Automatic annotation (TrEMBL):
Residues 58-118, 212-264 form the DUF302 domain. This is DUF302 domain-containing protein. It comes from Hydrogenobacter thermophilus (strain DSM 6534 / IAM 12695 / TK-6). Pfam families: DUF302. CDD domains: DUF302. Signal peptide: none annotated.
Length: 301
């Protein structure tokens, strides 16, 4: 798929029904307070072999900056799988799916929503890179995740027709969901250290580093977050917590160079732009520039 057709497709897709109903799956919980929902969800995820690796209390961090009216918001980094090492070395982008990010947030009416991404569009977009076993692992993981989420909340039915879904899914192959680059002339550990410093330098603060594979070929991802950006984006479009904090991943290539990548923010803007005010779009664009500038700094450009 050429770049122009992709852009036209994404523009069309963004207006095709409710795109959020295809890309995300949301469950609503009523009659329970926010923290009890978080604790129940954590317990059930751990019991279902969908281990919770981190609990990120996004709202507490934002409120600590003086934004006292920000609603309760927590992201659970979960769905840990022992098979992820081979998957992520083969298709590095899949760290956006495994481990998964489950967003739990409070609505204006006091109810609580739980949102996870729908893995199917990403499986289509990376269909050439993923083997049948890879697809089976991801699909099984998300099937189990949906089972847990449906035991806690009620699924919010999609506002998009089956015909639209079939058409969209057939066209997703080749869409650029990934921004990638290569760092040459330094070791994996040096590249990781320098990139962490560079991201901190542009206020993309590193909340954590997950070293998925410590032997060659190595693989790590960083959870990068600017809370000022996060406040504006999550207040308008809370679904994005499923892609947050931004995962900037590094991996050793066969030639000894270091690959680096993250989700294509320009694609996200084209997909969800109609759901965002201009200032939120500008925040996305600024985050993209910040990450790219950090990578360029590491490369010495």
């Amino acid at each position: 798929m050429k770049i122009l057709p992709i852009l036209l497709f994404l523009l069309t897709l963004s207006f095709a029904g409710d795109i959020t109903s295809l890309m995300f799956q949301t469950y609503r919980v009523e009659g329970k307070d926010f923290q009890s929902v978080v604790e129940e969800l954590k317990e059930k995820l751990n019991q279902s072999d969908l281990k919770v690796l981190r609990t990120l209390t996004i709202s507490e961090a934002i409120k600590a900056r003086g934004v006292k009216d920000f609603p309760n918001y927590t992201v659970l980094l979960a769905c840990d799988r022992k098979e992820k090492e081979d998957l992520l070395i083969k298709v590095p982008f899949m760290s956006n799916l495994i481990p998964c990010s489950v967003a739990v947030y409070e609505n204006k009416d006091g109810s609580v929503s739980i949102t996870a991404i729908n893995e199917k569009p990403y499986l289509e977009a990376f269909s050439k890179e993923l083997s049948k076993d890879d697809r089976r692992l991801i699909s099984k993981t998300y099937m189990e995740l949906r089972r847990v989420l449906s035991s806690v909340g009620k699924y919010k039915k999609a506002h998009i027709s089956k015909a639209q879904i079939r058409k969209i899914m057939s066209q997703l192959k080749g869409v650029f969901f990934e921004t990638s680059d290569t760092i040459k002339g330094m070791s994996f550990e040096d590249a990781k250290t320098l990139l962490k410093t560079a991201l901190d330098g542009v206020n993309m603060n590193i909340l954590g580093v997950e070293d998925i594979r410590k032997e060659t070929p190595k693989y790590s991802f960083m959870l990068a977050c600017n809370l000022t950006y996060g406040e504006k984006i999550l207040r308008e479009f809370p679904h994005f917590g499923t892609l947050a904090p931004c995962r900037v991943y590094l991996y050793e290539k066969p030639d000894g160079s270091v690959g680096v990548g993250y989700i294509n923010i320009q694609t996200l803007i084209k997909l969800y732009g109609k759901h965002l005010h201009r200032d939120a779009v500008e925040v996305f664009e600024k985050a993209d520039r910040d990450i790219k500038s950090a990578i360029k700094e590491v490369k010495g450009e």
